[in-house]
Design brief:
Blueprint lengths: L5 H8 L3 H8 L7 H14 L4 H9 L3 E8 L4 H17 L4 E8 L4 H11 L6 E4 L5 H12 L4 E4 L10 E4 L2 H13 L7 E6 L5 H17 L4 E7 L4 H14 L5 E4 L4 H10 L7 E5 L5 H8 L5 E4 L2 H18 L7 E3 L3 E3 L13
Parallel strand pairs: 1-2, 1-3, 3-4, 4-5, 5-11, 6-7, 6-8, 8-9, 9-10
Antiparallel strand pairs: 10-12
Length: about 350
């Protein structure tokens, strides 16, 4: 593998070596756009300036706590793989990682972990956020003690967290609505399945979706919004409920996971040819691929959980070593659109 240097960072960014040096040392004279581009390349390549590498070996071991949902679906499994890969490269520099798994949408479990970590020797926390006042207070307590907290996949924007790493969910919702409008007639009725309103990524996807409809397709009516808690059984049951309560429904958008259960409920109701289905799919298991390819699901929006996992670890490590927070409050990860002709090709891209 070619050694990453300051000059190679400059070449990748299309700027001078001096410009890269300014960004690394947080000096003025660089536009926000160029600064963000360079810092993104630094995170992607895991570049560590010589002075930081020397500093790292002089420091004591750094211990990071990762609080995330149990590995009950492939999205978080792939994300953990990305974290493990990034951590393995930094282990020689003293990085240690501890995972703390909890049930999705259970604030008390997250609070119990945070309370435990208060009396533990840690140097940073990465947390999948949940909107809860007490969780916000705990995060702020860690920040006030000088312990950085990053959020990933779901943000806690009202806290003092250092940075959020993940998709821009509002724009994801806008994209989903734009695609749905192309498949629906004016005056159509559409329903939405969501994980939980306490998860900001779900809530903001819906805000983006509804804002797009109100501006560009005001005659399309949202007939229902149902929470599934990202569970297989609830996704099926809530879809079946929508079909019973709104037999004239024209489309359903699932902005959480388990869209295969949404599709199965529509198939079992004998409404496959009557209801358009739109999925927010974190990655691409074969059964979803097949449902998109055969037209049961019109499209799926995909993320790259493994890349997100790598960014979580490398960004925290860079913050430790340089003391420089990422530009802005979000490190955005890309999203992909999967339709019948390309979703099989995206499997390798999104893991």
């Amino acid at each position: 593998m070619k050694k990453i240097t300051m000059q190679s960072i400059a070449d990748l960014a299309g700027v001078s070596r001096a410009t890269v040096d300014k960004v690394i040392h947080n000096r003025p004279g660089v536009s926000d756009e160029v600064r963000e581009k360079i810092r993104g390349i630094i995170l992607e390549t895991n570049y560590q300036p010589v002075q930081i590498r020397k500093f790292a070996h002089k420091e004591t071991q750094k211990r990071m706590a990762v609080i995330m949902p149990k590995l009950q679906d492939s999205f978080f499994y792939d994300m953990k793989q990305g974290m493990d890969e990034a951590a393995a490269r930094l282990r020689a520099d003293g990085l240690k990682m501890d995972y703390y798994f909890c049930t999705d949408f259970e604030p008390q479990q997250i609070l119990s972990i945070l309370d435990y970590l208060k009396d533990t020797q840690i140097n940073g926390i990465a947390l999948r956020g949940l909107l809860n006042k007490t969780i916000i207070d705990r995060v702020n307590e860690f920040i006030d003690r000088g312990i950085p907290v990053y959020t990933f996949d779901a943000d806690i924007p009202s806290s003092k967290r250092i940075c959020y790493i993940g998709e821009d969910p509002f724009r994801t919702g806008q994209l989903a609505a734009s695609l749905a409008v192309k498949s629906l007639e004016p005056g159509s009725k559409i329903a939405i399945l969501t994980g939980s309103n306490y998860v900001t990524s779900c809530a903001n996807r819906i805000k983006g979706f509804t804002s797009y409809l109100s501006k560009h397709a005001p005659t399309i009516n949202i007939a229902a919004i149902e929470e599934t808690l990202s569970q297989h059984v609830l996704t099926y049951q809530k879809t079946a409920r929508i079909l019973r309560m709104h037999p004239d429904i024209d489309g359903i958008w699932n902005c959480a996971c388990h869209s295969e259960d949404m599709a199965q409920a529509v198939i079992d109701a004998g409404m496959k040819d009557e209801v358009k289905l739109f999925a927010f799919l974190f990655n691409s298991p074969s059964y979803i691929t097949e449902l998109v390819q055969d037209g049961t699901i019109d499209y799926a929006i995909l993320l790259n959980p493994r890349k997100m996992g790598k960014l979580i670890i490398s960004s925290m490590y860079e913050y430790w070593m340089s003391g420089i927070a990422p530009p802005g409050e979000m490190i955005s990860v890309p999203i992909y659109i999967g339709c019948d002709v390309n979703i099989d090709l995206l499997s390798d891209t999104t893991v």
